[in-house]
Amino acid sequence: MNFQIAEFKAAYGKSSQIPPSDLPEIVFSGKSNVGKSSLINKLLFRKSIARVSAKPGKTATINFFSLQEANFVDLPGYGYAQVSQEEKKRWAELVEGYFAQERRIALVVQICDMRHTPTANDFTMIDYLSSSGYPFVIAMTKMDKLKKTQQQVRMEALKEELAAYPQVRLFPCSSEDGTGIDEIRRIIEKSISIV
């Protein structure tokens, strides 16, 4: 699979606007400011195909990026407190509407910040993915912000925190230095081949 041939395809603000799947979809989910856009950029060997913002809650649409063999789907980040209730409802409709459709979802990359215990919203999403039977992995971003010993401590803690999901694979990674990115590319390629 060639990750270098990719382009921004479209952004949708309502689930009713999203066209049917034409290719397998790799979905990126996570809370606001967890590094979804940075991870997508790193996977696609780009600096800014997905817009990165220091301000949480910037991705308010579902953004599609087309590759030759698949589409990357960037969901809006959840859990950002400083967004109106109306906007939160719109985001919820958008994401729930996306998953309610007949989509060719090959893999969901659920993104959590390695430095912290997953949030209540993270667990809600993980529960949903697990109970719905979607194939998913958890990318633990921002590992470069921890020293080696801290990384080991957090990985042990995460095994405890996510003990209810023993089948889920964790991928510690860094969009800064590229650690773990090749492993995520490999699991994406494998997922696409079996859809």
The CATH topology name reads Rossmann fold
The CATH superfamily is known as: P-loop containing nucleotide triphosphate hydrolases
* Oligomeric state of the chains present here: single chain
Structural class, from helix and strand content?
A: alpha/beta
Q: Kindly state the mean pLDDT as a whole number?
A: 90
Order of helices and strands: EEHEEHEHEHEH
Gross morphology is: globular
Radius of gyration: 16 Å
Biggest sheet, strands in spatial order?
A: 1-3-4-2-5-6-7
Total beta strand runs: 7
Low-confidence regions: none
Topology (SSEs and partners):
Layout lengths: L5 E7 L12 E6 L5 H8 L18 E6 L3 E4 L10 H16 L4 E9 L6 H13 L3 E6 L6 H14 L8 E3 L8 H13 L2
Parallel strand pairs: 2-4, 2-5, 5-6, 6-7
Antiparallel strand pairs: 1-3, 3-4
Quick overview of this protein structure:
By secondary structure, the protein is an alpha/beta fold. It has five helices and seven strands. It has one domain: P-loop containing nucleotide triphosphate hydrolases (Rossmann fold, 3-Layer(aba) Sandwich).
Q: How would you characterize this protein structure?
A:
With 195 residues, this protein is an alpha/beta fold. It has one domain: P-loop containing nucleotide triphosphate hydrolases (Rossmann fold), CATH 3.40.50.300. The chain contains 5 helices and 7 strands; from the N terminus they run E-E-H-E-E-H-E-H-E-H-E-H. It has helices at 36-43, 85-100, 120-132, 148-161, 181-193; strands spanning 6-12, 25-30, 62-67, 71-74, 105-113, 136-141, 170-172. Strands 1-3-4-2-5-6-7 form a 7-stranded mixed sheet, with helices on both faces. The model has no long low-confidence stretch (mean pLDDT 90).
